[in-house]
Inverse folding.
């Protein structure tokens, strides 16, 4: 079934061009023209080269959760403007524009769902919402995700795609790193698993805090994962980085992630891990 337009694979204007009013999309992996509807049905995976294009939250829910259903938590939380931040546009206006363009309330969605009948506390970052940036609301929702899971005896499955802390909230955004990590540790103390899924990109304060603290850290093929991007690091240290630096395959080779799961196999991989890690009854 074709996905809604807002959840079709997103394209970078500098690398891909829509042709025929959105009928075709150019793959930035192999440069082939692909039928956008067929690519959507394949959940954004190029049939020619296997390139994983970014997909929206509805597509992720359909791919991972049973019947695509999520009982949402904390949707009413909304950010304030503690710094009166203005970068040519007031911060509240940027938040409202992101809500209109994505149809989502914030840069992370959380709630209770099921994966092949197994109940989970589920979280999903929305990269199109201000780069999936973590502000006070995102940090609070992730914190409550871990806390609710610990109280209800649920494993956590969290899909992350973020550019890092949201600059418009300054130190209030950075504080979320420690807060969310503390909540993640309370989940560990409760003996409940945390499956961390690293999508493209997972960077900045999200990568530097809870994203790489899963009991199992999974990554998508080709995902960019790290604190700062390769170009920033090269400019800082004035050295050429190894090929594929900070991509999922490089991190797997160097022990930073546990496995790479292609998108068509992501759900079955999560199910296998949930069965293996679930807390024994009684």
């Amino acid at each position: 079934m074709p996905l809604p337009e807002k959840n079709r694979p997103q394209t970078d204007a500098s690398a891909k061009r829509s042709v025929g009013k959105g009928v075709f999309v150019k793959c930035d992996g192999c440069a082939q023209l692909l039928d956008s509807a067929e690519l959507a049905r394949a959940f954004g995976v190029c049939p020619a080269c296997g390139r994983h294009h970014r997909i929206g939250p509805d597509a992720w829910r359909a791919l991972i959760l049973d019947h695509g259903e999520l009982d949402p938590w904390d949707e009413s939380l909304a950010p304030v403007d503690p710094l009166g931040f203005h970068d040519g546009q007031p911060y509240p206006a940027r938040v409202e524009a992101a809500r209109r363009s994505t149809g989502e309330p914030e840069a992370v969605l959380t709630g209770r769902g099921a994966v092949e009948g197994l109940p989970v506390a589920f979280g999903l970052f929305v990269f199109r919402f201000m780069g999936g940036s973590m502000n006070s609301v995102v940090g609070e929702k992730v914190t409550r995700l871990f806390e609710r899971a610990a109280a209800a005896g649920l494993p956590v499955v969290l899909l992350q795609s973020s550019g890092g802390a949201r600059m418009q909230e300054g130190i209030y955004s950075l504080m979320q790193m420690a807060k969310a990590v503390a909540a993640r540790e309370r989940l560990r103390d409760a003996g409940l698993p945390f499956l961390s899924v690293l999508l493209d990109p997972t960077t900045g304060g999200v990568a530097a805090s809870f994203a790489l603290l899963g009991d199992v850290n999974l990554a998508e093929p080709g995902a960019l994962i790290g604190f700062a991007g390769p170009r920033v690091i090269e400019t800082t240290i004035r050295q050429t980085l190894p090929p594929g630096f900070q991509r999922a395959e490089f991190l797997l080779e160097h022990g930073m992630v546990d496995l790479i799961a292609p998108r068509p196999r992501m759900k079955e991989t999560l199910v296998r891990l949930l069965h293996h890690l679930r807390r024994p009854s009684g």
Remarks:
- The mean pLDDT is 92.
- Residues 171-189 form the longest helix (19 residues).
- The longest strand covers residues 194-203.
- The chain is about 35% helix and 20% strand.
